[in-house]
Amino acid sequence: MEKKEIVEKVITFLEFQKSLGVKNFIITPSTKGQSVESASKSKKEMLDELRSTIGECIECRLHKERTNLVFGDGNPEAKIMFVGEAPGRDEDIQGKPFVGRAGKLLTDMIKAMGFKREEVYIANIIKCRPPQNRNPIKDEIEMCEPYLRKQIEIIKPKIIIALGTFAAQTLLKSEEKISQLRGKFAYYEDIKLLPTYHPAFLLRNPQKKKESWSDLKMVLTELGLPVPTVQKKK
Ligand code: URA
Q1: Quick check: CB of 130 below 6 Å from ligand 1?
Q2: What are the residue ranges of helices labelled H in the chain?
Q3: Which residue has the higher pLDDT, 34 or 123?
Q4: Which of 34, 122, 154, 164 is buried most deeply by CB count within 10 Å?
Q5: 25 CA from centroid of ligand 1 (Å)
Q6: What is the rounded CA–CA span in Å between residue 105 and residue 95?
Q7: Do 160 and 193 meet the contact criterion of CB atoms below 8 Å apart?
Q8: For residue 2, is pLDDT > 80?
């Protein structure tokens, strides 16, 4: 619906209510700040709608070699949203984020925090696998980022955990290294964001897991949740 059309509909509605003698309207928190169209839709419906809008995206070169576009996965009402870099081979085949070796470690990290994987939301900066898992190119990020922005806008998580350099630098518009960014809360729009190491990096550098766990504990504290004293291995 066009903006003008929405305004006209609202005016007609208000005039009708006035003619009935209605003087006050209560805007409830659930509808305040949402568009007229989105007010009645659940987050799941809005994400499903976004997924259909993206369809079989051909905006950048990555569509040519992908098997599946990897949209994102998890609870649309999640308090925590993890954002990674881009799908790898396993993710490309299954159409789901973080299902390979790095995904297994991410799932363990989520469990160690006291969550089930289905309780959080997981997405990537880039929705299609770069060939041979090469780093995403600037124009690919620019093309794909609006989809992630929209996902974040719909989910409205309390905290975003940016996994690795690309996620942290893209969301924070920063050029600092992940080793500099990690462990410090920043903001993405008005949402708290904590950068930490990417699980694939942790697989190659297991001695860094300690720092990553300390980052995840900061998130739990920020959410007012109990912090497990020992990192659970599941
Ligand atoms: N690495 C990522 O950054 N994302 C995935 O989905 C898988 C591996």
Answers
A1: no
A2: 3-19, 43-54, 89-94, 101-112, 138-155, 164-172, 178-181, 199-204, 209-222
A3: 123
A4: 122
A5: 46
A6: 18
A7: yes
A8: no
